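Input sequence (70 aa), recorded before submission:
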Amino acid sequence: MWGLFLFYLRGLKFKLASPNHISPEMKEKIGNLSFQSYRSAKKNILVIRPVPGKKYSEITFPILSPESCC
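Predicted structure, token format:
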């Protein structure tokens, strides 16, 4: 099993979508992956795990764009 870090620029106002903002179709694409902010002070870094390489050659990230989150 592996983990993955996703970094995006601090000035961008993207944020991790809460479970109630994720559609059933998106939940199906995400599968059993766990997404969380690296630290509360570093919300521009997401940690994704577990990432079994054979199963996940593509990953869909549940983030909200600036227009829908801020």
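Checked by second reader. Helices lie at 24-30, 66-69.
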